[in-house]
Amino acid sequence: MAKSGSITGGVIGRHNKASFGKNKITAVAATGTHTMDSGTRLVNTVVVAGGASGGGPSGGGGGAGGLRDLSNVPVCGPVTITIGDGGPSATNCTGCTGCNSVFNTAGAEGNSKFTTSGGGGGGGACEPSQAGLPGGSGGGGGGTPAAAGTGNAGCYTPSEGNAGGISPSADEGAGGGGHTSVGGNAPGPTAGGVGGTGTDVSPGYGCVGPTCSVFAGGGGGRGDPAGGAGGPGGGGAGKSPGVAAVAGTTNTGGGGGGTGGGPGPTTSGAGGSGIVVVKEL
User: Of all residues in the chain, what percent carry a pLDDT higher than 90?
Assistant: First the structure.
């Protein structure tokens, strides 16, 4: 006699539990434990790492934190979430890399633990190199010759970010990379490169966070008289000499702006902290 069993899509065996999260959306802005509704078995989640600070002087913009948009992630019980800090502002050197963010359901990386990489610092006029640093998105080069920092440090598919821009000018900084586009090259000789564009996740998650679901924009590079604009998604603007650059927006993963030399403030913009958005299915 054949054994009886529940039928799940034509397969006889264990019954598959439905997910009853009712599309509840939560933006998580600080590290901690996140508890789902009792019926939730699957989630979609956007995980954004901390952005990097810009460099200086002749500073490139900081790269945005890596961004991953993950679908149908199995969950059962509380989830540990780590929100990466942004890189602190820098003076007279390369910017500081942001910190990773993690969505962890107590499993192995790539299975039930998902990490995004902090953004790469913007290049600055210091030895041995003025190149932007690698990261989730790479930092922009600062001064000449200054290569871009590479993106997608975690080697994910799809990519978590883009490279920064290149600086062909002795004085100007390139933009940091964003999740959607590379950082702008410094056009020289008077303007900084723009930060790379972030990504709008509002079609799947609605308007959440300080920039209405547009996250991971790159920081703008130093320019004189005009610094590069920060990329949409929380990127901070680069500034001219003697003016402190703009920080990436908190809880966006935006990169900070690059800065110039003195007199006056020579501090680059800090990177913005990351964020995790969870949609219970």
Answer: 70
pTM of the model: 0.91
Q: Which of 268, 201, 279, 251 is nearest to 54 (CA)?
A: 268
Confidence of residue 108 (pLDDT cuts 50, 70, 90): low
CA dist 263 and 276 (Å) reads 40
What are the φ/ψ torsions at residue 44 (nearest 5 degrees)?
-100, 145
Whether the per-residue pLDDT at 94 is higher than 50: the answer is: yes
CA 112, 151, 247, 205 dihedral sign is negative
In whole angstroms, give the CA distance from residue 233 to residue 149. 19
**Residues 64-98, buried b or exposed e (16+ Cβ, 10 A)?**
bbbbbbeeebebeeebebbbbbbbbbbebbbbbbb
On the question of pLDDT at 52 being above 90, the answer is yes
Please answer whether residues 52 and 253 qualify as being in contact, where contact means their C-beta atoms are separated by less than 8 angstroms: no
Mean pLDDT of 195-211: 97
Amino acid at 245: A
Tokens representing 179?
């999740």
Of 243, 208, 245, 241, the closest CA to residue 229 belongs to 245
C-alpha distances (whole Å) from 126 to each of 123, 131, 203 are 8, 10, 42
Q: What is the pLDDT of residues 149-171, one digit of tens each?
A: 999 999 999 999 999 999 887 78
In the Cβ-directed half-sphere of 178, how many Cα atoms lie within 13 Å? 33
Question: Which residues face 91 on adjacent strands?
Answer: 267
Residue that has been written with the tokens 């990127």 in this structure: 235
